[in-house]
């Protein structure tokens, strides 16, 4: 009877996961649903593919919010949250369940959560801001715990399967900056300390941008600076501050120039 009840429960879980993949009205349920599925995946391996489908849907939704809605902080935060949830879909009990694609999505989720922590500071003071801040911190902490458990394994798994491809690097950077796969075609990540175990890599694009990515904490630097930041000589320029305010946003364009 226990097994029959379990099968009925998993059938409902599968249906729920399918529904979540079609609409993001209940996006917050993704975390609980994927956790439940990963818990039962040993006895029901087919659930793992459902979780992957959920993660892929999350990334698609995130792309619309975080990239297409680049100028709206609330929209971008929702996108970052979806990227992070996609990464947490791969918080598995058994590391051998992971694929290289799962690993890239997890690393990208951590990058998104770290970026969201910086974005939330730009929201106006309100009770709502505190709630969002707490939620982002919780997602970031959980993803960092995943890195503590499987980070080195994930990095080694990617190297075992041929290393980071240009498309994988694009997916990793997608939460924080627009960069094409073509511009990364000659990118060969160099690892700090000469080992993937350090989880910090550097690579460049053909457009002159130099990227440093800390895969342990999700920190990305573009030309030595956090994404969307300007050199101090520009940020502190009296005229620009008068025109745009003290905390104006920017996008990093080709060859590392900011505009």
Structural class: alpha+beta
Question: Measured on Cα atoms, how large is the radius of gyration?
Answer: 19 Å
Report how far apart the termini are: 64 Å
Strand count, sense and closure of the main sheet? 4 strands, antiparallel
The H/E string reads HHHHHHHEEEEHH
- The strand order across the widest sheet is 1-2-3-4
Our estimate of the beta-strand percent is 5-15%
Helix residue percentage: 55-70%
Average pLDDT works out at 80
Shape: globular
Number of strands: 4
Stretches where pLDDT is under 50 for at least 5 consecutive residues are 251-259
Number of helices: 9
Features:
alpha+beta, four-stranded antiparallel sheet
Topology overview:
Blueprint: H1 2-22, H2 29-40, H3 46-68, H4 73-88, H5 100-119, H6 127-160, H7 166-173, E1 190-191, E2 200-204, E3 210-214, E4 219-222, H8 232-235, H9 238-244
Antiparallel strand pairs: 1-2, 2-3, 3-4
Helix pairs in contact: 1-2, 1-3, 2-3, 3-4, 4-5, 4-6, 5-6, 5-7
General description of the model:
With 259 residues, the chain is α+β, with helices and mostly antiparallel strands. A four-stranded antiparallel sheet has the order 1-2-3-4, covered by helices on one side. It is globular, with a radius of gyration of 19 Å. The C terminus is likely disordered.
Q: Can you describe this structure in just a few lines?
A:
With 259 residues, the chain is of the alpha+beta class.
